[in-house]
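name: query_chain
kind: protein
chains: 1
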Amino acid sequence: MEKTRQTTGWIITSAALGINLLLGLLYAWSVFKKALVADWGWSNTVSSLPYTFSAALFAFMMVFAGRAQDKFGPRIVALIGGLMFGGGLILSGFATNPVAMVFTFGVMGGIGIGLGYSATTPCAIKWFESSKKGLISGIVVSGVGLAPVIIAPLTAYFLRLYGIQKTFIILGTIAVVVISVFSLILRNPPAGYIPVQTGSKSSGSSASKETSWKEMLRTSQFYILWITYLLSATAGLMLIGHMASIASTQASWKAGYILVVLLSVFNASGRIAGGILSDKVGRTAAFLIVFIIQAVNMFLFPFYTTIPLLIIGASVAGLAYGSLFALFPSITADYFGVKNLGVNYGLVFTGWGIAGIVGPVLGGLVVDKTGSYNGSYLVAGVLLIVATFLVRYMKLSSK
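structure:
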């Protein structure tokens, strides 16, 4: 029976991975952004707004979507999310001004992503023992990071062939169909299900009880996690939203979508590697490693003025940023349990949502004012240093 349930868990994990693969279209926005600036004459700041609104609503929707997932199950939540997200993309094909696109891609798309994403990681984690929480989290969320590897060059190809509007419609149709199919596979384990511990105990502390969201909000650990998420995600979100433009600005590289793909490969790899690392060495040690590496990388980014150096910088940034998406849901489960993980992680995830506003807007404003991204790199690096100091207050045991 346990073997059958483990197989079911892996099937559900695969379906969750597939859903996130389509939701990861958000991370290919820099390809769209470059086309909006070049073809429609939008400024860098204005062309970042649909992405910014989408990222913010995605994060804040996670709170309500997570509660719905805990209450009604992941299947219906993911299905509605896929229809909203894909529908927003299709309608973006008819949006010809920033306000309209903020509504279609930003509002509709962001809500759809929040619904779909909230149904994936908590659902998959519940099928596995504590020693695999990091690994499973990493596998599921790697779909979002890996998506632009396929979608970024595909988007660039469609843009050349069909233009901006038809490209939105094509990608939206694909999203509706694929997410709808995978959502039908998702389900939570039966009541009272406790997975057999087959590996070593997780290096993070297991929660002493299942904590409700109201109880969680009364703990200091929640606020430490929230602030740390905000500080650490800002750098990655700024780079993701502007990577194609950064390639053009710093190295006169017109094929900047290649950097988007490269960042995405390491983003996806970092999600799996970060999960495995935290299972092995402890969550706090993993956080320290990731934050320090990313901080150094941000301080060095102004000096990445050649294609090889930009490749190195984007790879390191993707690896460090991606690991956050395995570390934070895992540590949330360690602190507060898995019963209410949907809403609990949704609340923690709002820190990422604020970073989704700060990061892209910071990059756009700085480059519009100065013609360079150097000021935004410095700010992001300082924020990561602050996050590194906050790690000492994450009271989890480590090896």
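note: The chain has 15 helices and no strands.
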